[in-house]
Fold:
Amino acid sequence: MSERAAPPAAGPLVDTFGRIADDLRISVTDRCNFRCTYCMPAEGLAWLPRSEILTFEELTRLLALFVRLGVRSIKVTGGEPTVRADLPNLARMFRGAGPELDISITTNGMLLDRLAAPLAEAGVDRATVSCDSLMRHRFAEMTRRDALEKVMAGLKAAEQAGLSPIKINCVVIGGTNDDEVVEFARWSRETGYEVRFIEYMPLDAEHAWERAKVVPSREILERIDAAHPLVADGHGPEPAVRYRFADGSPGAIGVIASVTEPFCDTCNRLRLTAEGMVRACLFALEETDLRGPMRTGAGDGELEELIRGSVWGKWSGHRIDHADFVQPARSMSMIGG
Ligand code: SAM
Ligand code: SF4
Structure:
């Protein structure tokens, strides 16, 4: 298949390597109430003006189109999705556009104590909550917010609202929080949450990422296995490789080894940024504008062509571990992690 050939005009969203994109991450805002050191500077970023952010109607129109093009699961993300005003109402509109969709939210958990119930009621199925330390002072250092207690309250509210299974995203940074991985496993056993350890990626706004601070997932698994033996649970549709506890305890461990063991060959993800750009890869250097055409009257056929073209142009994989790697201009919170 040649990259210059046109993408197919019908059928699922496919790229030139035969991968099908059926999982969409939708960023609903670039703003955030945390300032995680590995993502944003302390002073925040220059937020997009409101007029540049897709409206609820624009987001829902695009989602309905993506669903027609074969998207089966979405993650509502950001920035911090819960700071978008009236999020439950948007979730309700999303549910209307995709009654069969798997809808989850990725959040820092800060506002979940009051939003978990309305979000569940509006049709959100599951929640992934980011938590990088179980120690109050370290949590505050990493997120630049003294909010561990609030996040724990948010997790309880998510459980009570039935947003299950609950997953935890933990970015592991060498010399910062890597001494906590066994404690996180113990917590997983106690709560039943699936704790997913994410390798630190070069997507921080301050470009402070260093390869030496990446803790290989293999090492994390070895350390946990020595304390709480693990059994492989296979690769689901997600990039995380899952493990159960050998003694049958509740909980699970996942690792997302984006740097040391990239999963690009089976990647099924697609991203829509808060201002309406489609990105075929987290690390893409190019993106396709949908907002401009949409606001000048483009019909669904035209938008579909743009989306198909973007997926078709997806490269074989990122090259983080190669000397020629170029960090994208946008950081994680601006892309929609
Ligand atoms: N604000 C929400 C949150 O933190 O869950 C959603 C957006 S955030 C950009 C999505 C995920 O990306 C979070 O789990 C966060 O920890 C992760 N992330 C951010 N910067 C990262 C980096 N440089 N390397 C690896 N993961 C990162
Ligand atoms: Fe905000 Fe999430 Fe980035 Fe932390 S990782 S600064 S919570 S967008």
Q: What stands out?
A: The longest helix spans residues 148-161. Residues 32, 38-39, 77-78, 80, 106-108, 130, 169, 171, 198, 200-201, 203-204, 332-333, 337 surround S-adenosylmethionine (ligand 1) (CB under 6 Å). The domain at 23-335 is CATH 3.20.20.70 (TIM Barrel). The chain has one domain: 23-335.
